[in-house]
Amino acid sequence: MLQISEILCQNVNYKVQSKLLLEEINSTFNSGEISVILGKNGAGKSTWLSLLSKELTPSSGQIFLQDTELDSCSFAELAMQRAVLPQLQNMVFSLKVQQLVKLGAEVQQQPSNANLITQATMQVCDIEHLAERDVVTLSGGEQKRVQLARVLAQIWPLEPLQANQTKPFSGKWLFLDEWTSSLDLHHQQLLSSCFKRWAQQGLGVVMVLHDLNLTSQLADKVKILKAGKLVSEGSTEEVLTPENILHTLDLKTLAVDIYGIKQPMILPVLEYE
Ligand SMILES: Nc1ncnc2c1ncn2[C@@H]1O[C@H](COP(=O)(O)OP(=O)(O)OP(=O)(O)O)[C@@H](O)[C@H]1O
């Protein structure tokens, strides 16, 4: 029985010409949780994220978003329910930062709230000081935070977070493809705490990462793809063991317990003569 708060993938295949990029994917994502998808380059992570957000359609199989088959959701409905940060997004046109973020807020079709939402997500992403800058002149990390603010604005709760609502993000999903790339560690830490908090407030977060230690600190569930197949999934404790990491990611690691840190540190073992 499908829970209302889930995304469900049933026998999902995705093919380009005769090449099978994803094979028989059966899996569930829960709202209120952070799910991390891991895998080597080319394993199919971005392809899976694109299927979850309906940017691509499965060649066979079905994806359900909450109680509805994704195929039957309109893009206008989806735009207010889920937001997607793609892996690469080069800005090619001139626009002020504030205007770009506001484009995200305007998806919500509540013009009176657009300025407030824009302000809120710019604050969260620490880009208020860049408001009047042209996006094409920003550094890589600054652009990433601006794009994140725009994406967040798309699903930002209309009711202020301090209102008596414990789950203001309920029914909303955030898909992030390698959001940490080009972000400094300060902003990674800042935003990681936000994702954790928003997940507790009902947001479903699905992110593609390569950083195993960030994964072990952030993830409620981990899913590992290998050559288009889902080869491992479960809690961080179940999935992120040196044996499983070697088997699924072809990576030798050591798990090191550090006093004061709940999860063991995962150290890649460098091999050289
Ligand atoms: N349109 C396409 N035609 C042919 N092959 C494709 C197409 N799109 C993706 N692929 C291939 O499918 C595989 C999966 O791509 P995908 O972008 O999902 O990988 P990924 O796991 O996100 O990798 P990375 O970690 O490098 O970002 C890759 O080998 C890629 O080259």
From TrEMBL:
<comment type="function">
    <text>Part of the ABC transporter complex HmuTUV involved in hemin import. Responsible for energy coupling to the transport system.</text>
</comment>
<keyword id="KW-0067">ATP-binding</keyword>
<keyword id="KW-0813">Transport</keyword>
<dbReference type="GO" id="GO:0005524">
    <property type="term" value="F:ATP binding"/>
</dbReference>
<dbReference type="InterPro" id="IPR003439">
    <property type="entry name" value="ABC_transporter-like_ATP-bd"/>
</dbReference>
<dbReference type="InterPro" id="IPR017871">
    <property type="entry name" value="ABC_transporter-like_CS"/>
</dbReference>
<keyword id="KW-1278">Translocase</keyword>
<dbReference type="InterPro" id="IPR027417">
    <property type="entry name" value="P-loop_NTPase"/>
</dbReference>
<dbReference type="InterPro" id="IPR003593">
    <property type="entry name" value="AAA+_ATPase"/>
</dbReference>
<dbReference type="Pfam" id="PF00005">
    <property type="entry name" value="ABC_tran"/>
</dbReference>
<feature type="domain" description="ABC transporter">
    <location>
        <begin position="7"/>
        <end position="252"/>
    </location>
</feature>
<protein>
    <submittedName>
        <fullName>ATP-binding cassette domain-containing protein</fullName>
    </submittedName>
</protein>
<keyword id="KW-0547">Nucleotide-binding</keyword>
